[in-house]
Amino acid sequence: MEKEGNASNLFSSSSDLNCRLFRPNWENSVDQNDPFESALSSMVSSPTASHNNNGDNIVLRELIGRLGSICNSGEISPFNNNSANTSCYSTPLNSPPNLNLMRESGSNQFLSLPTFSPDPAFPERAARFSCFANTNFGGLSEIPPKLDPTKIPPPSVQENWESIPAPEKNFMASRSSTPDNAADSRENSTVSEQIPIPENGANPRKRKSAPKGKGKDTAVANVSASENSESSGKRSKSEEEKANQKASKDNSKLPEPPKDYIHVRARRGQATDAHSLAERVRREKISERMKVLQDLVPGCNKVTGKAVMLDEIINYVQSLQRQVEFLSMKLTTVNPRMDFNMEALMSKDMFQSRGSMYPSDGYPFQSPCGNEAPFPPSHGRNQRPQMENFADAASQVSSFWEDDLHSIVQMGFGQGQMQNFQGILPTSQMKVEL
Amino acid sequence: MNIQPPNSSSIKSRFAVKFVQAMKRLSKRRGMGDRYKRYRATRAAARVSLAAAVGPERAWSRAVLRRIKKRRGLIGRTTTNPRRNLRGLVPGGKGMDYCSLLSETAHYITCLQAQVQVMQDMLHLSSP
């Protein structure tokens, strides 16, 4: 493949340059990186980017950008600006200086520039370019910049990768295995990369969809967890779509995220990323709400699965509504005796929650005075003028009880919902005076 | 996006006030005897009082209040009418997306529970 040749050429040609640039200056700041970057760019641009290259470059840029965001948030932009995606390939495998450079400078460019294995392994990897671009390279690009300064990586890449401290160690371990797995199938390499991906690996999702809102952390966690559990890299697109469509209403939630995430990576789709991310966010929201509902509905703790939960919720809501109906039916028969209900009701509610109610303890509502007759009429009288205006306007059209309903609404809005209880206070004081 | 869970006691007090007043008004009406109409009116009053107590901050209460204003078939709603569908049960559930439907259902369940408690208390108080 021409890519192999290009890559190897780049590698061989850039190694000298890297030696020159890095060895003396690898402790320095970004300035040193720029000449290197430009040199790399020039090197990179010389091998003509074929269409395949471009496509892969886009993918690589994407993957690198995503994974580079583990370290910093601003990494991708410089990387993209450089258009030096292919510089990743050409980055020489002087791993210690490169990695140290990344570490010290913290520059975005070098963060995203992966280091290749030494010469013998590189052509082999280059031979696997297609899958490399999709999978291995993504793994390579996961090299985080934040290397432990104390740990100077040994020359070999594998060891470099392994020496990287804890959060990225998983990446490194996987990556070290990727050269070995270069000869393996695409799926396996995908698996080996993705299994140890920590939650940070899904940060690009978080970053990309930051405006998408909350629930992202759980989405990220689920994504990483799902990756760990998923072993197959190849899924049919239709299968995923079916899963997504099903996810909305019912059935289990767990199998879908793994398919979704793995599928995204395998399909190297950027547009679908947004969709699947949105789907994931939505699914996370739905599962959140379902958990809340599960707490509300009694007897739902043992139930798992959305469909059964939904049935339980529906049953519960129906039973509550039927209960209200039944109680209202009973209340119609006892209606006449409701005059003294108010204060007793209020006292009951107040006993249940002291803090939220009106704080006054010596409030007449709690007094044993059962003569509440003055209260409602006075209160009703206050409201009646307003209500009657409204009722007169509407009485021609509607049945009589709807006027009552409207008055219920009017009453509340007139007093203000939050102050409904306090609105009664002055009238009850009137009662006391009486 | 999640609004605060409802404060049960405040809803209970507000609902109790409104509902009792509605019931009083209902009892004073001469047009209804001990009939099915009174029952339906009571049921409607309960529903409306709950929605009014909740206020316009929730989609389902807004839907209920809207129905009153439009003078649609609020009275005719029975619990057997809606199918086995959450959208049919929660007021205003037809025009919502699934996520908000679930959150509205949660709030609605809380309010229904408060309503049931208040009405039970009223029953126990009125006929000890």
TrEMBL record, chain A:
Residues 39-55 have a biased composition (Polar residues). It is found in: Nucleus. Coiled coil: none annotated. One of its GO terms (cellular component) is nucleus. InterPro entries: bHLH_dom, bHLH_ZIP_TF. Residues 270-320 form the BHLH domain. Residues 33-55, 140-259 are annotated as: Disordered. This is BHLH domain-containing protein. Residues 232-259 have a biased composition (Basic and acidic residues). The keyword Zinc does not apply. Residues 204-213 have a biased composition (Basic residues). Keywords: Nucleus, Transcription, Transcription regulation. Pfam families: HLH.
